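During data preparation, a discrete fold description was generated, as reproduced here:
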Amino acid sequence: MSRDTEVFSFMYVFENPVLQRELLVNLRTKRAFVLLAVYQLLLATVVVAAWPSDQRLDLTSNPPSATKLVNLFFLGQYVIASLMAPSFAAGTIAGEKERKTYEMLLASPLRPGAIIIGKIVASLTHIGMLIIGSLPIIVLCLPLGGVSVYEVLAAYLGLIISVVLFGAIGVMASSYFPRTSSALVVSYLAILPLVIGACLFWASMASEGDLRLKISAIVFPAFGLTAVILMGAAAAGRMLYPPDVGSEGKEVIDLEREAEEAVGLVIQPDQFPDRLFAPPRKDEMMADGANPVYDKELHSEIFSQGTLMLRLVIQISILLAIPMMGVFLFFKQEHAPWFGVYVIVFNMLVGPSFLASSITSERERQTLDLLLTTPLSPVQILWGKFVVRFRISFVLTSFLMWPLILGAVLNTSFWSNGLTVLGMFLIIAVVCLVNCVIALACSLFTRKSSIALLTTYAVLLLLYVAPPALSTLARTLEMSAPVIAQADWTGVASPFSALFALPLNEEIAPENPEVNAGKLHIVVGYFAFSALMVMAVTAAMVLRLRARQGLSDG
């Protein structure tokens, strides 16, 4: 290696001003220390809860309880780290656009490659600290047996490579979108199948430790690092030859040219069903008595950033839905609720992205006080913003309901389960409503769109994932029947628990009496809990806007 190359590499990493600035900003905040503490507490709680309860352990063998504990620890950490990586990386470049500093970054003497490397390394350093900080916890599990030190090292290597890969996906998406929320949604949709595939691989290869070790240590890092290099080069190339940039660093988007250059799906606002989620630009005067907030949101906000995000969301979701339809609705119809899980996860990722910026965007443009001084009531303001964005979320989610309709019509096993299929539709519809209401509330009670979106994701994960996780953990650890019953009752907050509580007759699940009978009290409880929560959150939003409106009048 020549001296010039050594100096060049040194400056790319160690003398990179972007990297230095990002590290100082990210690692010196209170959030960094709080997140590290919460992450450690979560993992420690999982280990303590899953610690073998046997009176005596035979450490000369591989006890199944110890193996179960280690696998649970790794899968839990992998899922948590995978969810966190895009949240750090998706705002690296899109955040510069939102802060109106993107033009200055492009005009700096830094090479695009140096900028991308600095952004990726800085965004993932915090997650790397979290992963390294978990090593003492897993070391406590090694004396129990069930896993070797080499498997632990291979698992951590695979985890680090996965986090770097997911971070590269987030940075590349961030270079293509002007808003962090859009980049975050596309990143999550692209990462979702990778996370599912990795978890299935790790669980299915549990009995083949040597083979899993070789794949994790050799094959996966090679493909992962190659993908990272390619995506980093794509993001750097986009910064080297950026699109047209107008005032305040905003990209100039020509919708007609974008439609001509689009690969795959093309959105045509003047045709059905495209006009339902991407209405055409306004070409006539607003009708008398119409809600001006609704009219503005319907015709101005959606297309202001182009159609790339909508096209990617539709294409990725349909591409994933087709194989899932074949597996869960035809070949293994006893697992039909898992298709509903996919639809709900899709809406959890996509739906809040439209609502989370509804109020915060007014704050960021410094127009919220002006909006509150208008004669519009808080109900009219919230209704105008909610209806338009909820319609987009609901229509996009409805595209994924067609496979469920086809499965229910073409597969005769579902014909005698019509009420169960109807229950799936109702649960998904309620999920669309609840997700959008929570996202709108987070947008009202926070100051930035990115914070509102991440807060929404955190609330939804707590409501939807925690109850079935508690129930599964109680059964996995073979806890007492009263404890399991109490854990099951928390499922009234989760649509996932409600989906699996729907009854299926003998034609679909002949060998599972628990599935056949169902748990209708969980289903009814979910609908009641969701209705109460929507009413309570709506009342809180109206009171908040009225109080803010009173301050503006004063």
Summary: The CA atoms of residues 348 and 374 lie 33 Å apart. The radius of gyration is 25 Å.
